[in-house]
Design brief:
Layout: E1 8-11, H1 21-30, E2 35-38, H2 45-62, E3 65-69, H3 72-78, E4 81-84, H4 90-97, E5 103-107, H5 110-119, E6 123-126, H6 144-150, E7 156-160, H7 165-173, E8 178-181, H8 183-186, H9 191-208
Parallel strand pairs: 1-2, 1-8, 2-3, 3-4, 4-5, 5-6, 6-7, 7-8
Length: about 210
């Protein structure tokens, strides 16, 4: 399996954010985060392009990896990876972005994970592991048992949905390679502190699990 940029994937959502997304991106770097996903799918194309270019500059300065949700063309333009909604688009993304690009897929069950494996994606986000304030009513929660089943497949699995520093260890113990977090970081007064807490929780759990 391809190594991931880090055990924590931070996902943007400007509707929940207490600070500008660029400010949060800076905080990700300060907090030890190494991976940021520009989501904000409702942004107009030009607005998302401009934001993507600004985040790409911050990523280069702060030394973390940038991924873009869904838009393969934008990922190519800003030199980012891409996170896709379905495994069917992986081949197109790989052809456009090349073998070195990190390509992920959203999964909501084992069949989605298996489709991502067949498409040769680099990772999946499996959600919702826990109930989440970011998407109230989104569920039911899959629980860590779903991570255990998914981790048996030949792909890196990130736990998404309601994950905190307190629950990250349980996710890694169940087989996840890392966690993906949106709301808790976006809503934080001090996002760098939350990022740092999550990174340390993941790294500590990884050492305990022999990774």
């Amino acid at each position: 399996m391809r190594p991931l940029p880090g055990p924590l994937l931070v996902i943007t959502d400007r509707h929940q954010a207490r600070h500008a997304i660029e400010t949060i991106a800076e905080a990700v770097g300060r907090g030890g985060g190494r991976w940021l996903l520009l989501r904000d799918k409702d942004l107009a194309r030009e607005g998302k392009r401009d934001l993507g270019l600004r985040l790409a500059r911050i990523a280069a300065e702060r030394g973390f990896t940038l991924s873009v949700s869904t838009d393969i063309g934008l990922a190519a333009e800003v030199g980012a990876g891409v996170h896709l909604q379905a495994a069917a688009a992986v081949a197109l993304a790989r052809a456009r972005l090349g073998s070195s690009a990190i390509i992920g897929v959203s999964a909501h069950g084992l069949s989605d994970v298996e489709a991502a494996v067949a498409a040769r994606a680099d990772y999946v986000t499996l959600s919702p592991i826990f109930l989440t304030d970011s998407k109230p009513g989104y569920g039911p929660a899959l629980g860590t048992a779903a991570l255990h089943a998914a981790a048996k497949r030949e792909i890196a699995v990130l736990a998404l949905g309601g994950v905190t520093a307190e629950t990250a260890g349980a996710c890694l113990a169940a087989g996840a390679r890392g966690v993906a977090v949106m709301g808790e970081i976006m809503r934080a007064d001090d996002p760098a502190r939350i990022v740092g807490d999550l990174v340390r929780a993941c790294e500590g759990a990884g050492r305990c699990n022999g990774r």
